[in-house]
Amino acid sequence: MLQNKQIIMRTFNGYLDFLAERQPDLSPEAACQVAALLTQAEFNLQMAEAFPKV
Fold first, then answer.
1. pTM, rounded to two decimals
2. CB burial of residue 1 (10 Å; 0-12, 13-18, 19+)
C-alpha cells in the first residue's frame, strides 16, 4: 500500500512540475486541481488496463 501511495505522489508531483513549467501563470490551487485530475485519470486508465471488463 505504501508503494502505491509513493507512486501516486510521484505522479502527482510530476504533473505539478510539468504544469509549473508549461503553465507558469496557473495559480497553485488550479495547478493542484489539474494535477489531481490527471493523476486520477492515469490511475483509472491503469486500473482499466490491468482489470479489463469482460
1. 0.85
2. exposed
